């Protein structure tokens, strides 16, 4: 503990890092405060039914978790940052088939700025669809007509669509400011802070149900906390696990001079889970489709739709796990360019021992990537459906979603990424990182 405190003191000594952390925390507080502002014209005291509709045993509850409860509060931030995430996914997928986007990807920083601008405009386009859909669904989600203080006329529709769009654009701007001026990935941090915002209340509810109802008491709470920590360790393993491919360089160029470096080895780190949480996000998007069948007139289709409404149900999780495995392969294939990796390696004078440069290297990397993606995708699928098993063990749904799935993976992934950025600042200033001791490093003159 003393070493950890010393490391915190070292962080505070570095003015640049201190300012970045303060700015990041300040912007996250602004985001959370904005999420509490209800849309004008809606009585915030009559949103109980909406909160019940977005309970944690359905997909609306998951959307509510990602927005930190703003969805259930009919807030100006009700759509959160998710439209921007959707636009980013669409642009990334279009980059495979659209030559113009492929050209921008090769133009470096200038191309990245143009792609970001395209993503922003696409986000607004998505908002112009999602915002009216959200407003139109409010009565069906349980908000009574009396809650609309000024009625639901054209003025209400126009102002609400404008505010929902502005809210997401503002959240997008906050995320970009955090990325540019703060510490960590801003968009990911905003999603994480929304998820974490609901963690204390759900844990208190679980604690109350165990203690007040004599449902296991403190002992069960301790067991649940231990299992939660084990799930966190499993997520850390999944996020950080890599397969290192040895690379050997015949010669290397240093400061304009060619130096012999025969026998020098480096490694290509291929991640066990190269696709991150994207397969879960893709799979969850598709899991909305069967729910549309619940309103069908055909009894068979209606029963299928009802069966898929419970995100902790058997068939939901079987299909969900299969989709995650399929999308893991799909997303890894489109985001890890093994051919480009092999070409870059060949141009830099590197080679894999025993493998010919060029096509054979690309085929070898593709084979290794395919082999490690299988256990990685299965592990990811198991973590994604783990909350369903936790619920069957008697844990409340609100607390169970923190045992796996997108929520836990996002929290762990974002935390590791942020710590790594803090570590890089500390090491550059001759301090040990958060994962090491808190003593000063001696700089070499």
From TrEMBL:
At the highest ranks, the source species' classification is: Bacteria, Pseudomonadati, Bacteroidota, Flavobacteriia, Flavobacteriales
Q: Where are the transmembrane segments?
A: 21-42, 81-101, 121-143, 155-175, 187-205, 217-242, 313-331, 378-395, 401-419
Q: Name where it's found.
A: Cell membrane; Membrane
Q: Oligomeric state and partners?
A: Component of the Sec protein translocase complex. Heterotrimer consisting of SecY, SecE and SecG subunits. The heterotrimers can form oligomers, although 1 heterotrimer is thought to be able to translocate proteins. Interacts with the ribosome. Interacts with SecDF, and other proteins may be involved. Interacts with SecA.
Family named by the database record: Belongs to the SecY/SEC61-alpha family.
Name assigned to this protein: Protein translocase subunit SecY
Q: Does the keyword Cell membrane apply?
A: yes
Q: Topology versus the membrane, per the UniProt entry?
A: Multi-pass membrane protein
GO (cellular component) term, any one? plasma membrane
Alphabetized UniProt keyword annotations: Cell membrane, Membrane, Protein transport, Translocation, Transmembrane, Transmembrane helix, Transport
Question: Any keyword Transport?
Answer: yes
Q: What does this protein do?
A: The central subunit of the protein translocation channel SecYEG. Consists of two halves formed by TMs 1-5 and 6-10. These two domains form a lateral gate at the front which open onto the bilayer between TMs 2 and 7, and are clamped together by SecE at the back. The channel is closed by both a pore ring composed of hydrophobic SecY resides and a short helix (helix 2A) on the extracellular side of the membrane which forms a plug. The plug probably moves laterally to allow the channel to open. The ring and the pore may move independently.
- Biological processes, Gene Ontology terms: intracellular protein transmembrane transport; protein targeting; protein transport by the Sec complex
Q: Which Pfam families match?
A: SecY
Q: Which organism is it from?
A: Aureibaculum marinum
SUPFAM superfamilies (alphabetical): Preprotein translocase SecY subunit
């Amino acid at each position: 503990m003393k070493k950890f405190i010393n490391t915190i003191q070292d962080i505070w000594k570095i003015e640049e890092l201190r300012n970045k952390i303060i700015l990041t925390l300040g912007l996250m507080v602004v985001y959370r405060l904005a999420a509490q502002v209800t849309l004008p014209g809606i009585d915030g005291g009559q949103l109980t039914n909406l909160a019940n509709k977005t309970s944690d045993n359905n997909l609306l509850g998951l959307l509510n978790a990602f927005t930190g409860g703003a969805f259930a509060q009919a807030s100006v931030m009700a759509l959160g940052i998710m439209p921007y995430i959707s636009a980013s996914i669409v642009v990334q997928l279009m980059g495979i088939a659209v030559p113009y986007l492929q050209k921008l990807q090769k133009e470096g920083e200038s191309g990245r700025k143009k792609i970001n601008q395209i993503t922003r405009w696409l986000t607004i386009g998505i908002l112009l669809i999602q915002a009216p859909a959200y407003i139109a669904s409010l009565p069906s989600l349980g908000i009574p007509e009396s809650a609309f203080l000024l009625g639901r006329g054209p003025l209400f529709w126009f102002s609400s669509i404008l505010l929902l769009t502005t809210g997401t654009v503002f959240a997008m701007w906050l995320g970009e400011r955090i990325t540019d001026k703060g510490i960590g990935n801003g968009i990911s941090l905003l999603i994480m802070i929304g998820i974490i915002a609901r963690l204390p209340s759900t844990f208190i509810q679980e604690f109350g149900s165990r203690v007040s109802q004599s449902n296991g008491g403190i002992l069960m709470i301790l067991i649940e906390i231990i299992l939660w920590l084990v799930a966190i360790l499993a997520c850390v393993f999944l996020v950080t696990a890599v397969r290192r491919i040895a690379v050997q360089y015949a010669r290397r160029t240093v400061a304009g001079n060619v130096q012999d470096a025969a026998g020098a080895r480096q490694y290509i780190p291929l991640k066990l889970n190269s696709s991150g949480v994207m397969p879960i996000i893709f799979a969850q998007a598709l899991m909305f489709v069967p729910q549309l069948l619940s309103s069908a007139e055909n009894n068979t289709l209606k029963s299928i739709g009802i069966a898929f409404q419970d995100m902790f149900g058997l068939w939901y999780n079987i299909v969900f796990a299969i989709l995650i495995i399929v999308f893991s392969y799909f997303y890894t294939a489109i985001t890890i360019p093994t051919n480009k990796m092999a070409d870059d390696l060949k141009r830099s004078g590197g080679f894999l021992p025993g493998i010919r440069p060029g096509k054979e290297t690309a085929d070898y990397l593709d084979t290794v990537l395919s082999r490690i993606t299988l256990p990685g995708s299965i592990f990811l699928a198991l973590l994604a459906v783990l909350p369903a098993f936790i619920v069957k063990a008697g844990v409340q749904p609100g607390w169970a979603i923190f045992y796996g799935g997108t929520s836990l993976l996002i929290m762990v992934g974002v935390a590791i990424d942020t710590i790594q950025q803090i570590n890089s600042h500390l090491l550059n200033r001759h301090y040990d990182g958060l994962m090491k001791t808190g003593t000063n490093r001696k700089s070499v003159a």
